[in-house]
Amino acid sequence: PIRRMTVPQIRAKKGGEPIISLTSYHAHTAAIVDKYADFILVGDSLGMVMHGMESTIGVPLDLMIMHGRAVVRGTKRALIVVDMPFGTYEESPNMAFRNAARIMKETACGAVKLEGGARMAETIHFLVERGIPVMAHIGLTPQSSHVMGGFKTQGREEETWAAHIADAVAVAEAGAFALVVEGVVEPLADKITAAVDIPTIGIGASANCDGQILVLEDMLGLNPWVPKFVKKYGDLGPAIERAVADYAQEVKTRAFPGEDHVYR
Ligand code: KIV
Ligand code: NA
């Protein structure tokens, strides 16, 4: 049997070949990503991307578990990491453990991710000590967008850098096996990568991070609008529209179903 990428294997990639990662929320896209990615993130961005929410704040735990299970079923190589949604871990280490354990047991994923730096260090330590690998996430943390006043690039003022670097060091020391660095200016991302002994996974950060991640639907061109840091590797939105328009036209003219598509 093909063995999945493990948490120690991801961690050991610090300073080596770049770690390849994308998000995925369902079985069939995950099966494609699985051929190339070291880890797949079932991100809470699914609230916005798949369910039309305005932000990730309203994503329920059960929804993360459902999509997490689908992605685990659709894959066999990559490590699967599932986001802990807003309100399921911040209150206390106990609460975080209870909900992270549910995610691990009900999805069979290999790790969880949560947002926050120094303030989450105690919780990260608590989870890791009890068998739950944790990926951390600092910089632009979308679950805190109401406090930050929107989705704002972090580190534009150099006097804020020390706090971000301290966040990175705190989660690494607490036992996180990797660290997503989102939406920070490039020189700060480079300082963060140099400051920690765990891999940094950049999104809107720097090519010098130890790995990169993008939201799959964004890089496929399924979302009409994407942030500056997203490179569109596909143009699926227009491709889907062409297919749907062709279908509509053929139904209207009774060209579909044709001879090949009916049982004689
Ligand atoms: O939810 C998500 O997709 C994420 C990535 C952007 C890192 O957290
Ligand atoms: Na997320």
Provide structural commentary.
With 264 residues, the protein is an alpha/beta fold. It has two domains: 7-233, TIM Barrel; 236-264, no CATH class. Helices cover 39% and strands 14% of the residues. It is built from eleven helices and eight strands. The chain has helices spanning 7-11, 27-33, 46-49, 61-74, 93-107, 121-129, 145-148, 161-174, 186-195, 216-219, 236-252, and strands at 19-23, 39-42, 79-83, 111-115, 134-139, 178-182, 200-203, 211-214. Strands 1-2-3-4-5-6-7-8 form an eight-stranded parallel barrel, surrounded by five helices. The radius of gyration is 20 Å and the shape is globular. The termini are far apart. 42% of the residues are buried. The mean pLDDT is 97. The chain binds 3-methyl-2-oxobutanoic acid and sodium ion. 3-methyl-2-oxobutanoic acid is lined by residues 23, 41, 43-45, 83, 137, 180, 182, 203, 213, 215. One of its GO terms (cellular component) is cytoplasm. Belongs to the PanB family.
The count of strands amounts to 8
Strand residues, percent: 5-15%
User: Which CATH architecture of the largest domain?
Assistant: Alpha-Beta Barrel
Largest sheet: 8 strands, parallel, barrel
Sheet with the most strands: spatial strand order: 1-2-3-4-5-6-7-8
Put simply, the count of helices is 11
Given helix and strand content, the structural type is alpha/beta
Intertermini distance: 43 Å
On the 0 to 100 scale, the average pLDDT is 97
CATH homologous superfamily assignment of the largest domain: Phosphoenolpyruvate-binding domains
Bound molecules: 3-methyl-2-oxobutanoic acid, sodium ion
Estimated radius of gyration: 20 Å
Q: Helix share of residues? A: 25-40%
Low-confidence stretches: none
Pathway: Cofactor biosynthesis; (R)-pantothenate biosynthesis; (R)-pantoate from 3-methyl-2-oxobutanoate: step 1/2
Function: Catalyzes the reversible reaction in which hydroxymethyl group from 5,10-methylenetetrahydrofolate is transferred onto alpha-ketoisovalerate to form ketopantoate.
Pfam family, one: Pantoate_transf
Protein name: 3-methyl-2-oxobutanoate hydroxymethyltransferase
